[in-house]
Each structure stands twice: as structure tokens, then as C-alpha cells.
Write a structure and sequence with these properties.
The chain has a single domain, classed as Oxidoreductase, molybdopterin-binding domain (Sulfite Oxidase, Chain A, domain 2, Alpha-Beta Complex), CATH 3.90.420. A hairpin with a 2-residue loop joins strand 7 and strand 8. The strands form 2 sheets. Strands 2-1-10-5-6 form a 5-stranded mixed sheet. Strands 3, 4, 7, 8 and 9 form a 5-stranded antiparallel sheet that branches. The longest helix has 8 residues. The chain is α+β, with helices and mostly antiparallel strands and about 160 residues long. The protein is built from 4 helices and 10 strands, in the order ββαββαββαββββα. About 30% of the residues are buried. The structure holds the ligand Nc1nc2c(c(=O)[nH]1)N[C@H]1C(S)=C(S)[C@@H](COP(=O)(O)O)O[C@H]1N2 and molybdenum atom.
């Protein structure tokens, strides 16, 4: 058996924590965002708010950025925390089962209203797939969105 997928939230926080599918399902209804198609018609699924996750880890006052890591394909995005906090959802289920790989699961970071690619820190590129770690940092951390032109081109020639 493979071990269950885990989302780690750590860095400049009082209580680093790891969340499983079951842990996220247990979040209260007010901490949930049901049916993300209300924000983006092509992105179904249910998630929990970034705020609800942060409430459980107690960010330090020095934490100003979130760095979102996808170990699987070595992708990262780093975004100012205050811009994000009411904008972001971690989607973890579709029809009551873990969010599929084909949609960027088991955990996918989604912005309610992303800007076009490369036009803002909160752009479509920040909708990190295969999210396994949210790291709180003082100032910006790793961000593979700002690669050279050619690499960026390659990134956008998917699907
Ligand atoms: N892990 C990971 N997440 C990622 C990417 C990636 O290459 N790896 N590409 C990003 C970019 S550049 C964009 S524009 C969106 C595309 O999301 P979509 O394939 O669901 O349209 O995913 C973002 N999330
Ligand atoms: Mo992108």
C-alpha cells in the first residue's frame, strides 16, 4: 500500500502541521468552499480555504510570503500572504473522493480570480498542482514561474 497523500504547512508558523484527505474533510462547513465551478467553470471540486489552514498553524508575524511547493515536478510559486488570504482555496476532493491526478490532485491550490499567466503574482501559473507543501517565509521564496523565456514557453505547451 502507498502511504496517504499529505499536505505539509510549515516554515514561520507556531505549529507546523500535516493534513491528510480525512483531516481536510473534517474541516467545518464554513471553512469549506464547495464546488469551485462557481469561480471557474472548468475547475470542479471541493476545497478548504487557505485561511482555515493558516488558522491551524498560527503564522508568525514575520511571515510575509507563502511558498507553494510541488515536489513531484519540482514546481514552486511564492506569493505575498496578504494578497492571497481571501483568494485561495486548497481543493482536495471531487465527488467525495480524493482529487484526481488529472486535475492536479491530490491537493491543488486554486485562486478564485487569477490573472493571466505572467501578469501578476496572483496569476494562473500560481494554481499549483500536486501541492505537497505550503511554506511561510519572510520575503519571497522559491518561484519556478520566473524561469527563462524558453522554459516558460514549454510550461505553457501542455494539454
Ligand atoms: N505542479 C505544477 N503546477 C502547475 C504547473 C506546473 O507545471 N506544475 N503549471 C502552472 C501553470 S504555468 C499554469 S498556467 C496552470 C495551468 O493549469 P491547468 O493545466 O489546470 O489549466 O497550472 C500551474 N500549476
Ligand atoms: Mo501559466
Amino acid at each position: 500500500m502507498t502511504s496517504p497523500a499529505i499536505l505539509r504547512v510549515d516554515g514561520l508558523v507556531a505549529s507546523p502541521r500535516s493534513f491528510s484527505f480525512d483531516d481536510l474533510q473534517a474541516f467545518s462547513e464554513t471553512e469549506h468552499v464547495r464546488d469551485f465551478t462557481r469561480f471557474h467553470p472548468k475547475r470542479p471540486g471541493d476545497g478548504v480555504t487557505l485561511r482555515a489552514l493558516l488558522n491551524r498553524v498560527a503564522p508568525a508575524s514575520e511571515a510575509t510570503y507563502l511558498t507553494l511547493h510541488a515536489t513531484r515536478d519540482d514546481f514552486a510559486a511564492s506569493i505575498p500572504l496578504e494578497d492571497l488570504v481571501d483568494e485561495a482555496v486548497v481543493v482536495y476532493q471531487l465527488d467525495g473522493t480524493p482529487y484526481p491526478d488529472s486535475k492536479g490532485g491530490p491537493f491543488r491550490f486554486l485562486l478564485k480570480n487569477p490573472a493571466m499567466c505572467h501578469t501578476d503574482a496572483l496569476d494562473d501559473c500560481a494554481n499549483v498542482k500536486f501541492l505537497d507543501r505550503i511554506e511561510l517565509t519572510a520575503g519571497g521564496g522559491r518561484d519556478t514561474r520566473r524561469n527563462d523565456e524558453q522554459a516558460q514557453e514549454a510550461l505553457h505547451h501542455h494539454g
